[in-house]
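User: Second chain of the day. Same drill as before.
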Amino acid sequence: MIPGSDSDHPSFLKSFLFAVQGFRFAVRSERNIKVMLCGGVLAVVAGLVLQLDLLSWGIIFLCCGVVISAELVNTAIETVVDLVSPEFHPLAGRAKDIAAAAVWVLSLMVALVGLAVFANALLARL
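Assistant: Same format as last time:
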């Protein structure tokens, strides 16, 4: 497909399948995606144990989705940087480090939100 052109634009279903294909590739090939998914599963298990309310579930799912999405964007950025700069270049390394830092900062903030949600659920049970 040529950017800006409507010809040969994939259907909605094909676009969806491309997204699923990208997600499957990332899960198979990227360790950090697996770590984030495991963290999400642990958050869901903790939520089931603590019997979270509907709003808390929404916060947990939103946080999990945002972190996994950020990790996918980071992976895409690293892939493009590797494509355009196969040899080491300080600017390429900086771009990859900054993208990784964005995921790290987001993960720290989500961890704080998770602590608040789960602490609230624990205190409500006392």
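Helices lie at 12-29, 31-50, 54-84, 90-125.

User: Great, on to the next one.
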